[in-house]
């Protein structure tokens, strides 16, 4: 039970692994066999004032349950009676982070769940052993929430005898989570509830792909997509030879980060961003397109203009061929102070190990935030939710790599076409997009560009897509004012689509 200012919120927290099965391909019929065990934590607000309890899925769902773990077995008697089988009107939100290789601990304990981690912020990071507190702004107030860990993250693993490699890729990952969502809806009798997906970072790539697959393959129509720090077209942020798009789209973020570190005294963040976006959209593309046709004087003037916007020495910009790459920028911005700047959140900084390094050696925003989330999830699952496992909870892991994008051979990875097609197929589908100004992983201007070029009408773009901005980074909920604002925006969004 969560005590809120408006009264108690009673809910059931269900935690454990769900066995996902697949039917064999070919002419011969055979029973579906297990190929993956997906770990998830589900929060469902109780109807009728039932007292909160922590449970794990049944033995048929979760495989082995460790000693001391509370378990509720599913039986025929557990099925709702005809008198109590009315559809549950509460929305259901399926949430996941990205990476690839990231568990959903960040959304789970940073923003959505009834409990949240006390991680601190850029100017006052928390110190170990860290702590947790009630989340009085939890999305659970207005929607049931299912936090899902993708394959090899969290406690999700291949089924015994199955190989993980086949699940480490765009289409396999999409199809696995589609199977999980459909199983969850069936076993919880929630097919007639409003349905939403909420993804962060690569989780937004995943969300757009899942939404399309649910509709294209299974005719499952969603009510809403919530995309936090989105990446819908990798061409907008992959720094590859011959592709000038990332330099253009990252520049407004560079300017915002420079502002956070005092490089634009007397100007507001909005003024700095507006000026940088105007330059990025109007002058910068033409300058880059001219290449060696720029005169020495034009080149020097361009470097001075760019350096003034992003807070770096113009001579460094000129040496970069007017194209500062993001990891290089994060090492350069505070070089005179011998500090590096965060990629996930550019408001963070830390001492540089090598004052002459061409790129940042580590991300201070992750270094200062991840330990708090790691400690919190391991304590919360075992002590509060009574789920026990000797397997390591993988908050972030490189074990998913190499990640397969074979479906995009000879072209950039993108799901903008998936999102466009799904919006055309489902007229009721709405989209909420959240950007952090100081996010140097998925820059807001890149997302703005992709959204403005979706294959939908201008009227649909204006009426069905809501875009919000926050004075924080990739995980904008680490900034308390942004967390409060984002929580309210998400709750408003699901209420409007219920």
Characterization of the model:
- It is a single chain.
- The chain is α/β, with parallel strands linked by helices.
- The protein folds into two domains: 87-235 and 369-497, 3-Layer(aba) Sandwich (Rossmann fold), CATH 3.40.50; 247-362, no CATH class.
- The chain has 15 helices and 18 strands.
- The protein has helices spanning 59-62, 105-112, 170-187, 202-218, 245-260, 269-282, 284-290, 296-310, 314-319, 326-332, 364-384, 416-425, 444-452, 458-464, 480-497, and strands spanning 2-4, 7-9, 11-22, 33-45, 54-55, 92-96, 115-118, 120-121, 124-125, 131-134, 144-148, 157-158, 195-200, 224-228, 339-341, 349-351, 430-436, 465-470.
- Strands 3, 4, 5, 6, 11, 12, 13, 14, 17 and 18 form a ten-stranded mixed sheet that branches.
- Helix 3 packs across helix 4 and helix 5 packs across helix 13.
- The longest helix is centred in the C-terminal third of the chain and has 21 residues, at 364-384.
- It starts with a strand and ends with a helix.
- The model is unreliable at 48-56 and 58-83 (pLDDT under 50).
Strand content: 15-25%
CATH class label of the largest domain: Alpha Beta
Provide the gyration radius in Å: 23 Å
CATH topology of the largest domain: Rossmann fold
CATH-defined superfamily of the largest domain: Alpha/Beta hydrolase fold, catalytic domain
Question: What's the total helix number?
Answer: 15
How much helicity do the residues have? Answer: 25-40%
Uncertain regions spanning at least 5 consecutive residues: 48-56, 58-83
State the end-to-end CA separation: 23 Å
Number of domains: 2
Regarding quaternary structure, how should these chains be classified? single chain
Large-scale geometry: globular
| Class derived from helix and strand content | alpha/beta
Please name the CATH architecture of the largest domain. 3-Layer(aba) Sandwich
Kindly report the average pLDDT value. Answer: 91
Q: In total, how many beta strands?
A: 18
Largest sheet: 10 strands, mixed
